[in-house]
Specification:
The chain is of the alpha/beta class. It is about 40% helix and about 20% strand. The protein contains 11 helices and 11 strands. Helix 1 packs parallel to helix 2, helix 9 packs parallel to helix 11 and helix 10 packs antiparallel against helix 11.
Length: about 325
């Protein structure tokens, strides 16, 4: 589809069975303060939802006729949904956010100018928390856990790349790109990103990496602000334990390097010994209430997830060798 000259910015939201959260995101978008001369639209991509997502869309669309557009992508996978939205978008600039995010009221207006401001092909900005319940101290003071929640609150601007593990970064809750640049790269990698209820991620990190490798500048601009709504269920230790398990499992499933040492059930034997050591160390740390005990528990959870993922990958490869067809799973980095 060609770019519509009357539409400058297309906001793309992929959603799957989170109708109530989607409503809040659309409410924030309908309250945007934009110049009268700015043409913009919201493209909602329904990724195989079975709840009342369509009804929520219809209700919200009636509040701003012509502003919201609906696209159905029944094949599960956030990257597939984003690519469907990219194909349907009419703006030269695409602004991407999530269905549990409320953009600041100047987000669309800032998205329309940020790329020209920096002469860039991509940009991201602050992702600030909006807590449903007061977070405990152990969460507030942990950069690792805030990263897992997709929180990005740095006030300074920067051109990417930033050293691995450094900050700031550009993440999926708050991204702006030239549509032509995304299309030139073939869109988002469908082997990455959340699929259904599985919270594997990294499709956002991957697209930034490919942008930079192709010589297309990407920047972080703190004026581009959104608020990540974090429910009560995500401020518990059990939640982060599951996040790290999924991270390890997803990375193992997405890997394509054959094991370089003797295996048991498709898993290098050394990994079982490594997991046993981590389990013993983390258990002792918890019993003794050592500082950093929860980090050790998370390391153990990730190692366990990696071991499980390698076992699943071995079974999948065995089935594929027998002629079965199976979709390639996604890598996991942080929960959404």
């Amino acid at each position: 589809m060609s770019v519509n000259p009357h539409i400058s910015v297309s906001v793309i939201i992929a959603t799957h069975n989170r109708a109530a959260r989607l409503r809040q995101t659309l409410e924030a978008l309908l309250e945007q303060k934009t110049p009268d001369s700015l043409g913009w639209e919201v493209v909602v991509v329904d990724n195989g939802s079975t709840d009342d997502t369509l009804e929520v869309f219809r209700t919200m669309a009636m509040r701003a006729p012509g502003r919201l557009r609906y696209v159905s992508e029944p094949r599960l996978g956030k990257s597939r949904a984003l690519n469907a939205g990219l194909k349907a978008a009419r703006g030269a600039v695409v602004a991407l956010t999530d269905d549990d995010v409320s953009p600041a009221d100047d987000w669309v207006a800032t998205s329309a100018t940020v790329l020209d401001k920096w002469d860039a092909h991509g940009a991201g900005g602050r992702i600030l928390p909006r807590w449903e319940a007061e977070p405990p101290k152990w969460l507030r003071e942990s950069r690792r856990l805030l990263d897992a929640l997709g929180i990005m609150y740095f006030d300074g601007s920067a051109k990417l790349p930033i050293a691995a593990g450094g900050h700031p970064q550009v993440w999926g809750g708050n991204m702006v790109y030239r549509r032509s640049a995304l299309l030139a790269l073939g869109g988002f990698d469908v082997a990455l990103g959340p699929v259904g209820s599985r919270r594997y991620c990294e499709e956002d990190v991957d697209i930034v990496r490919r942008m930079l490798e192709s010589g297309r500048p990407v920047v972080y601009d703190p004026d581009l602000v959104v608020f990540h709504r974090i429910p009560r269920a995500r401020v518990t230790r059990a939640y982060f334990w599951r996040v790290m398990w999924d991270k390890g499992e997803g990375q193992a499933l997405a890997g394509d390097d054959p094991p370089s040492s003797p295996t048991l059930a498709g898993v290098p034997r050394w990994r079982f010994r490594h997991l046993a050591r981590l389990f013993g160390s983390s258990l002792l740390a918890v019993i003794c209430r050592r500082a950093g005990a929860f980090d050790e528990v998370l390391d153990c959870a990730m190692a366990a997830g990696t071991t499980w993922g390698q076992m699943k990958r071995a079974r999948r490869e065995h089935q594929q060798g027998g002629g079965g067809e199976h979709p390639q799973p996604a890598a996991a980095v942080r929960a959404r």
